[in-house]
Model the fold of this input.
Amino acid sequence: MGRNILIVESNNDKYFFQSVIKHMNLDISISAPIFLDEDCRVMDGSDKDKLTKALKDLKADIQKEDIDRVGIILDIDRHSEADRIKFINDYLIKVFPEATPLDRVNQFIELNFDDYQIQLACYFTNVDGKGELETVLKAIKSQDSTHADCLERWRECLISNSKQITDKNFDKLWVVNYIRYDTSTKDDKKDAAKKLTLNYALENKSFIWNLDHPILAELKVFFRLFNDLSL
Amino acid sequence: MIKDIEITNFRCFDRLKVSGFKRVNLISGKNNVGKTALLEAIFLNSTPTKDTLLSVIDSRINYSITNKAKELSEKEWNDLLKNQNAGIFFSIDSVSENRNPKKVTVFIMNEQSNISELNIILSGILSEVFGKILEDNINEDGEKKEFIDRQKKQIEREVLNNNKAQDVIVLRIESDDKKSPQTIILPKTTTIALEGNQFRGNNTKHRSNSSFIPSNKRSSSIELTLEFDNARLEDRDKEVLNAFQIIDPSLVSVESFSIPEPTIYLKRQGEKRMPLSLFGDAMNRMADIILKIINNQDSVLLIDEIENGIHHSNQVAFWEFLYKLADRLNVQIFATTHSLEMTEAFIKAGLDRPDSAAHFELTRHEKTNRIVAINRDLETLEYAIERHKEVRGGA
Done:
């Protein structure tokens, strides 16, 4: 049986999904992320370029590695599921002209070229149809989060001074505060660069997240696809 | 320009298909994955002659110091085949950018083969060749037709009727041009004549379809000087100086003198002239590469381990020079490398010329263990390297 791999947007996505997969005891490896972060867009080229490169890189890997199934996970942000699927399909067909287009999430399509037969499925990280990874992390926190929650007041202060912060960036700050102030120990603070990071928190303090939260149910359905030999 | 190639039963390849060659092609891969064999295959398809075959065999032989000439053995011929049980031949088929196909097949007869089968193959080829020649010449004068009749009878006598079918190599070339199909028959016991322990075939002469620079080759002073003089005759010696200046910007002239024997001399600003041999491996290799391009317009150049001797700080300028020269003189280049730095320099120099540069990773598929050639455009290659992926071969 060949390998299953995931293509994700950022390192934080990679760390989070790895811990969910580990929690579920599954066997899926995650490629180096493709960085579709909006903040990076101006500096590093457009999202479509990055997705195209990731797909071409995948096509090269398929020719030498034993890969059976591939998953693409993107943040839904403020788009609809249909829009996100169209976004992927537009570039998928350019790199794999014989592929069946994706129709919906959590369903495999055939990504065949030359003699290679690969299955591909997609999923979009969301809470109630919008948001991104940090939105999910905020929803599944399991410890007291006073320091992070008080950022709401800070946000209100910004608004009253005619300043804005996007939901996306706010959620990122929330997660940083939750890790740095709400769930860190004295020891952690002594080695801040290493220990006050999401990666460290996921690997060594996974109890600060509720990985059994019902919000993760759909994501888990997606991951289970990869071990389902009947598909 | 060759665009695609398919190799069957040659060296380490059962069947290898490589598609999408461009003007300048870099092939990377681990040791023993077949990079040199791929170059040999392209060489044979590009210039399918007896000398090409012999030089391909020669490059893999260890000669003793006392060898003046070497008669080739059964083993050395059979080493060209991946699997003798799969068939007594290997084939190398190419398609050009104009969609012209060219098929080169080499039959290596052996004692285990059924002699009547071999006779059928040979008779089939011979009748086709001679039948076509006779047909072409049917309206020519009687003398020519008689000559061809005599040739045919002679071959049939020597090769077929005397049961020597198992002792020959048959090289068959089929393409769209008028000369096709061509058949060259040579006895297995061909002797390679050596000069200073290396084979000197006719491929080294001026104006060739393709040239091969092996990884460890150092051309003789006389050969290089002859090439330089040919370049000078065509007023192209300035290109040679420009190439050398990539490695040593203080050089001001390149000239040839017959002192004590034909020698290329280089001169640095404020210094006296010195022979090229004193300037190190990179300069000598550079001379070989540049002169081969300059003197063989409209041809194919194959370079094994192109990074040899070239310091990383000169690599981007070296590639830029190659791209420009190859484009101007219509030379298609195929080079192999182990070096990640050389690959990165290739990308940097080639990003502005996406239509001229192609990269191929030669590696074994993890599951089937078959050798595959993965074509990446330069941006995809750069992306893979940035993510610390292995593109030099292997997972």
Notes: The interface with chain B takes residues 2, 31-32, 53-54, 56-57, 60-61, 63-66 of chain A (CB under 8 Å). Residues 36-45 of chain A have pLDDT under 50 and may be disordered. The two ends of chain A are 14 Å apart (CA to CA). The CA atoms of residues 148 and 177 of chain A lie 5 Å apart.
